[in-house]
Amino acid sequence: MIETSTDALASLAGFTGPVAEFWPALAEAARAEARAKEALIYVRATEGEAGGWRLMARAPKGQTAPEFAALCPVHVLTDLTREGFAEHAGALLMPVHLGRSGGARQRAVMVLRGARPDRAALLARLMPLTAAPLCFEAERGSRRAGRDAERMAQTIDLTARLQGAGEFGRAALIWVNGLAEQFACDQVTLIWRARAGMRLRAVSHAEGVERRTEASALAEQCAEEALAQSGEILWPESARDDTLVTHSHGQYAALAHPGHMITLPMITEDDRGRAQSLGAVLLERRRGGFTATEQWALRLHCDMAQAPLQRLERETGWLIPRVGRAIAPSIPGLLKPRTAPGRTLLALAAALAIAAAFIPLPFRITAAVVLRTDAMAYISAPFDGYVSESNRILGDVVAPGDALFDLDRSELELERNALLAELAQANREAEIQRAAGKLSEMQIARARAVEITTELRRVDLRLAAATARAPIAGIVVEGEPAKMIGEPVRRGDPVVTLAALSSLYVEAAVSERDLSFLREGQQTDVSLLARPDTSVPLAVRTVIPAAAAQDGETVFPVRLTQPEDQPDWWLPGMTGVAKISVDHRPLYWIASRRLVDYLRLLLWV
Fold first, then answer.
1. Domain shared by 493 and 509, yes or no
2. pLDDT score of 537 more than 90
3. What is the rounded distance in angstroms from the CA atom of residue 241 to the CA atom of residue 450?
4. Strand arrangement, sheet containing 397-398
5. DSSP character at residue 177
6. Strands 54-59 and 38-44, sheet pairing
7. Which residues form a coiled coil (predicted)?
């Protein structure tokens, strides 16, 4: 039980439940305040006689309630209006303050049966409760305003994301995904204008769009149905409206079982004020229908999204239609294709385009090129050891005989010293045996000395080879011994690769489909990536019959002639592009030769 009317008013004014639960709460609070046996609340929407009242709430709940006319005859209603309260048949009647609904003044009456007899104190306690509906409605309006402000912020945010999308398809996907998230939809579909009617352009949470399905065709028909009637279509609510055509919506609902759906048309006006259909958006939701507030928010979304979607449609797509749309507004009305001068101008332009297609232009083959050298030197380790000293890195230019790297000599020098000692010992032994007259032992000692001398020569050769030297003049293109100090190497392992700078040549990789156009001596212009602004004139020298795969196609190396004056900045491995001049061919042939070749292979003609 509520102890004071102030507490009851605060509880009812802050009531956050639905309207259907508010009126029973108000009746219970009034019954508790009046300590009455029963409290009833009747409401009617217009002024008038006692008839037409309907029961809104009853506390406690009962099976049936008496008619309002029996509790409040006309003369009692008149006294109630004049005095602010009335009594009839042991019941206390008080007016309840309401606002307006749809422009009509509402009236409500509270009837308390079996209330306590202290009427003056009772009226004072009940009077604030009669204003509770106004407080409740004001609180609801405040919450609605907050929700509307939040929806407006979400709409502005989503529109801003459309502005920065940069491409129509991406913007459409962002928009339908945003609507699906904001309105808790199972699926949102955007249908947009195309040359042959309306076409499905985006589906929420789907990167690709499948247009060749029955559901897609019916969705497009739903859009055309809404556009034809220039208004939203709710399903299944609109099916009960005889003034609306919902045939396509019914077919789509039977196929997809969306539960509830709404289709909103997107219509704008052209420069002459004529209606122009842009498209429609179809929203599906199984958990419940779309309220009037949500419909208002969706219309706002559509109105704000139309302009950025239109702009992105104009700015994206094929180049020729975009150019046409950009030029069309600036063409004078007299020269547009629908007029006689416009048709003449269009025919003249077509004739000029056909004539231009037969103009012979230089036909050139494009191929990737790379600088190579005829002389390469691979310097390997002469024996197993460790790199002890070097200062050579990639890009160093060397002359013949320049030191490249040194292997560690310490073990070889120790071995040489040991061999020298053994050689001296063997020679002394031979002299001793000769002096003693032991010829056989002398021969053995001399043979041992010869063997040690041979081993000593082998060690000397290794010591001489411990310093690896450049056999040719060139540049270090592979291997950096300066970064290998202390690293073990095995005999024969490549350590440094040199490329000669004096014998560079250009090799082009020509596609096999262009090979038949090549002839020896054809002029070729080569530009390397290192200096794309510099072109070097060369000529075709020979085609090397060694096919290779490059970028998914078969190419053949074509060697070009040496330049008359080789640039000093050329280095082995540089890449670029070559333009090989073949002859002059018509423009239409140059533009269509690849397609014609493909069709010949495909159709075998």
1. no
2. yes
3. 122
4. 376-380, 494-499, 474-478, 397-398
5. H
6. antiparallel
7. 409-436
Per-residue burial over 97-136, b = 16 or more CB atoms within 10 Å of its CB, e = otherwise: ebeeeeeeebbbbbbbbebeeeeeebeebbebbbebbebb
Angle between helices 132-163 and 292-315 (to 10 degrees): 10
**Is residue 2 scored above 50 in pLDDT?**
no
Structure tokens at 567: 């640039």
Q: What is the pLDDT of residue 34?
A: 83
The first and second tokens of residue 433, run together, are 């045996």
Residues 170 and 300 in one domain: yes
Would you report the helix, strand and coil content of the chain in percent, each value rounded to 5? 45, 30, 30
Q: Are 447 and 350 within 8 A, CB to CB? A: no
Residue 324 has pLDDT above 50, yes or no: yes
CA 39 to chain centre: 63
388 and 249 both lie in a single domain: no
pLDDT in tens, 85-144: 888 888 888 888 776 554 456 788 888 888 777 777 777 777 777 778 877 777 777 777
Give the model's pLDDT for residue 239: 77
> In terms of domains, do 101 and 136 share one?
yes
Q: What is the pLDDT of residues 581-591, one digit of tens each?
A: 999 999 999 98
Closest CA to 548 of 556, 559, 537, 540: 556
Cβ neighbours of residue 57 closer than 8 Å, sequence gap 6 or more: 23, 24, 26, 27, 39, 40, 41
Tokens at residue 381, please?
């380790």
In a domain, 150, yes or no: no
Q: Which of 499, 533, 548 finishes a domain?
A: 499
Give the closest residue to 370 by CA, choosing from 476, 499, 498, 513: 499
Residue position matching structure tokens 């842009």: 278
What is the amino acid identity at position 525?
D
Q: Is residue 364 part of a domain?
A: no
One domain, residues 121 and 14: yes
Mention every residue, 6+ apart, whose C-beta is less than 8 A from residue 70.
none
Residue after which a domain boundary falls, among 318, 345, 365: 318
Could you tell me if 176 and 306 lie in one domain? yes
The C-alpha atoms of residue 166 and residue 207 are separated, in whole angstroms, by 17
**Residue positions counted in the chain:** 605
Supply the pLDDT for residue 3. Answer: 43
Judged by DSSP in three states, 242 sits in coil
C-beta separation of 190 from 177 below 8 A: no
The whole-number average pLDDT for the span 469-498 is: 87
pLDDT at 512 over 60: yes
pLDDT at 47: 54
Report how far apart, in Å, the C-alpha atoms of 306 and of each of 48, 142, 265, 276, 547 are: 48, 30, 11, 12, 56
What is the Cα 264 distance to its own chain's centre?
Answer: 27
